[in-house]
Design a protein that fits this description.
Radius of gyration: 24 Å
Number of helices: 3
Structural class: alpha+beta
Shape: elongated
Strand order of the largest sheet: 1-2
């Protein structure tokens, strides 16, 4: 007997944003379930859950605020440039 195609295609993977994964991870933590059980009942990949958990925890551990002390005032003023990541730069100037 030949293997005939059934016509059914596997479902395409669902793409979720970081915000959606953050909500999923909050729900997972609150559920008290194991990762295996949580993912099985919701059709999620444990590998993907683990990847996002690690990635978002690393992001969350970065300091939200860093103390910045301007240089001593001078007659000509001062310039401060802060690279905030993701292409964002903050310039502070005193003249």
């Amino acid at each position: 007997m030949e293997n005939e195609p059934t016509g059914a295609r596997p479902a395409a993977p669902v793409r979720r944003s970081a915000e959606e994964w953050q909500e999923i991870l909050c729900d997972f933590e609150a559920s008290g379930e194991t990762a295996k059980s949580y993912c099985a009942t919701r059709g999620l990949s444990r590998k993907t859950l683990s990847k996002w958990r690690s990635q978002l925890n690393n992001t969350a551990s970065a300091p939200a605020f860093v103390a910045v002390h301007p240089p001593e005032p001078s007659p000509t003023g001062w310039d401060i440039e802060l690279e905030l990541g993701n292409g964002l730069v903050l310039w502070l100037k005193q003249r």
